[in-house]
Each structure stands twice: as structure tokens, then as C-alpha cells.
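= Paired protein data =
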Amino acid sequence: MTVQQETRSDNEPLEVWIDQDLCTGDGICAQYAPEVFELDIDGLAYVKGADDELLQAKGAVTPVPLPLLADVVDSANECPGDCIHVRRVSDKVEVHGPDAE
């Protein structure tokens, strides 16, 4: 089963957010998916909005674009701070990240 099939049954939308309290500033996420993640001047990673703007509010979420799903999931899996959370929009259940079942 592919990552896409595991996390998006019936193309269910996903969103991603970063817990900056746990972010190590390693930048792996920005390397995997620079369209979604970016390091700010404070050295921490943030998600980006549709207009490429950093979303710096605590708990800010952004949609996971389907073409970037594998890169976002890899970011969550490889993050040394375990701070990247990918969840379904419909019920907020985490499907990738430290709280995924």
C-alpha cells in the first residue's frame, strides 16, 4: 500500500502543523517540502500558507497538497524533534507524526 493510499482514503484532505516548542531547527522538513515548510529567523520551522506566507501563530495549520504528500510524510517521519503533525481535516485525527496511531 502506498503512502497516498494509507493516509488519504477517498482523497480525504489532510493538514499539517508544527509544534515549535519541540522544533530542533534541523531544517529537514524544509529540505523535503520547501513549498510547505520554512525556517524563520528564529531558527524554527513553520508551515506556509497558500500565498507562501509563514504562518507563525501557535498551532497554525496548512493543507497538505496531494502532490507533496509523500514529502510531507517523509518530513514528519524524519523530524528529529518529532514536532510535525499530519492529520485529517474532517476529524483532526493524526495520521503521521508523534501522535499517530
Summary: The CA atoms of residues 28 and 78 lie 7 Å apart. The two ends are 17 Å apart (CA to CA).
